[in-house]
Amino acid sequence: MAGLRIIPRLDIKGPNLIKGIRLEGLRVVGDPHEFALRYYAQGADELVFMDIVASLYQRNSLSDIIRRAADQVYIPITVGGGIRSLDDVHHTLRSGADKVAINTAAIARPELIGEVASRFGSQCMVLSVEAKRTGPGCWEAYTDNGREHTGLDVLDWVAQAVDRGAGEILLTAVDQEGTRKGLDIELLRAVNARVNVPVIASGGFGDSVDLKRASDAGTSGVAIADALHWGRMTVPDIKQQARGLGLEVRL
User: Which Pfam families does the record associate with it (predicted)?
Assistant: First the structure.
């Protein structure tokens, strides 16, 4: 095992790094390039860039930001938001991304998952899931930053997506996102029990105990935004605390 991955998540709107609560009430944090370089220098294992208004405009506008980052950052970069076709995937990878995270387009046409996996490899095809709890042990997949119902059960959807070729899942718990109240461990446990690909937990990271609980639930990586962006913790802080809890993390 390579250890639990610590993955800063950068949500982008236009030229700005932003942060919200439950994907709403967005505040500008700063220049995404500066933050990406800072997290890389601090020892982040990977970076996730999400264009959070891309679905609205049906296009991903992160190319310049990704190109700048990829010139100076030598860790895997995942890019999501508005990626709807093989051409979009090709363009995003050409800009310097290593993986693409697809939500809306995969739900609209699940065949896209297999097409991306066969053309670019399963490791490149990340299924992005926005999960909202609908009852005990039940979650519905949403699109458009947790605003649009899909009617899809999250557990059935991730299983179908992996069968079609998704090589990784970026799992955002919308109810927890930006709240600092902790990851949705029940959701993580349920998804990890259904699929045999790496799962990245996103939404609600509060403190290092979350890392231990996520790891115990089978999670491969934790995407962190709020705690890092507002300077409550640094990547080295998080890794040191994780090691203190007996977790294996990359140096």
Answer: His_biosynth
Average pLDDT (49-62) is 72
For the chain, the straight-line distance linking the first and the last C-alpha, in angstroms and rounded, comes to 14
Q: What pLDDT shows up at residue 1?
A: 45
- Choice among 11, 140, 168, 177 that is catalytic: 11
Phi, psi at 34, each rounded to 5°: -60, -40
Active-site residue, selected from the candidate residues 45, 46, 51, 130? 130
Q: Pick from 102, 109, 147: which is nearest to 128 by CA?
A: 102
| Strand, coil or helix: 201 | strand
CATH topology of domain 5-244: TIM Barrel (3.20.20)
- Using a cut of 0.90, tell me whether the model's pTM lies above it: yes
- pLDDT bin (cut points 50, 70, 90) of residue 146 is confident
Would you call 156 a catalytic residue per the annotation? no
Q: Give CA angle at 181 (137, 187), nearest 5°.
A: 20
Tell me the C-alpha to C-alpha distance, in Å, between residue 57 and each of 11, 13, 123, 184. 16, 12, 27, 30
Q: Determine whether 11 is an active site residue.
A: yes
Find the helix or strand (DSSP H, E) in which 212 lies.
Answer: helix 208-216
